[in-house]
Amino acid sequence: MRVGYFDCFSGVSGDMTLGALVDAGVDGRAIVQAVKSLELPGELSFETVRRGGFRATYARVETPREHAHRHWRQIESIIDKASLTASQKELARSIFLKLGEAEARVHGVDLAKIHFHEVGAVDSIIDIVGSAVGLDLLGVDRFECSAVPPGRGWIKAEHGRMPLPAPATAEILKGVPLADSPIEMEMTTPTGAAIVTTIAERFGPLPPLTVESIGLGAGTREVAGQANILRLFVGVLADSPNADRVFMLETNLDDLPGEVVGYTTIKLMEAGALDVFTTPIQMKKNRPGVMVSVLCDETKIPAMEEILFRETTTLGVRRFPVSRHKLNRKAVEVETEFGVVRGKLGWLDNRPPTFSAEYDDCARIASEHGVPLRQVFDAAHAAYARRTTEAALSPPHTTPQDHEHPHAH
Question: Cα(190)–Cα(172) distance, rounded to whole angstroms?
């Protein structure tokens, strides 16, 4: 899987995104042509600059000063008329829609009535549409992003002096891990926030990539003591079929009846947890307690935490990524004297597989036949062993083409 990872150690903006994309290998001429098709009074160019002593690509957008504000429908019309692919138009609309919805919530008005201030200006339209084109041309399967530093201090906006992060930026970044902002400046703009939150499927540390290219996108300003650049890593995810990454959620409980804990584990499994288990622990003041551990995919974290907070008295849930090394797996069925039993084969490369019978099948059969559960498990394993032995002793299947032909050719 090919991944693009945005390292926003110095924040993210529209021009930084454009510069990083071109620096990572996207054809800047294709982006410039797409921007020209917007038929707006502005020009886009790319140049090599230095930020904090490092070479980077800067996206220069030159536009005349204007005072007009555009509504969502006007921006949507501009995008629809441009010479872009369907996927590029859809991505540009999605980024602007995220901006519009944030502005609407901040100002308490409907999306149809909101008029974009700074982000509705020509330079912001060029930044977003150009970025949508570049992101599409980069040709990756997935985007990820680091934690985002919003910035600190104050800025002058349409409505006067505002603390950072700007209200729209703060709204867009809800649910996104934020990084410390040691420098007093706007490090992440509403445009930059909208871009990364629209495309990124995960926010966190750099994944295990085999890096193909690194793009450096320059910010407009030089910043004392820090390179004002956005890094874009492009590479192939080191994704083995026998390994993956999931998340572990943990919480400690010492004031709940066992029935509630048991009920909670059932609801977690029903909601899609990969595994749930409990561990006896000793808590503060020597109180006996229980730790509930939940293994789940990253996409399931919100659902799992909602159940833990709803069903228990916990005040917090720990979460951390864990790596798994898994056996190759295959579903099989074996015929026993009690009937068909489903199971799984698990094996490492170049090693014989092991058979595991499905508990649900064995429990049902044991109940129906009035026999011990262990007897059904033994019968299933014996049936698999017989089948393996018979397969090893059977001669290989041949076709007429496999026999030697007595005539020379």
Answer: 7
pLDDT, tens only, 178-228: 998 888 899 999 999 999 999 998 898 898 889 999 999 999 999 888 899
Torsion of CA 398, 401, 404, 407, to 10 degrees: 160
The CATH classification number of 328-393 equals: 3.10.20.300
Q: Low-confidence residues of the chain, pLDDT below 50?
A: 118, 398-409
**Contact (Cβ atoms closer than 8 angstroms) between residue 376 and residue 336:** yes
DSSP type of residue 179: P
Residue 214 and residue 168: Cα distance in Å, rounded?
A: 30
Tokens describing residue 92: 């540009």
How many angstroms separate the Cα of 7 from the Cα of each of 1, 18, 148, 245, 258?
19, 14, 9, 20, 45
Pairing, β 142-145 against β 200-203: parallel
User: How large is the C-alpha radius of gyration of the chain?
Assistant: 29
Which 3 state secondary structure label does DSSP give 168? Answer: helix
Which CATH superfamily hosts domain 243-325? Answer: Transcriptional regulatory protein pf0864 domain like (3.30.70.1380)
Q: Decide: pTM greater than 0.85.
A: no
Q: To the nearest 10°, the Cα dihedral for 185, 189, 192, 196?
A: 90
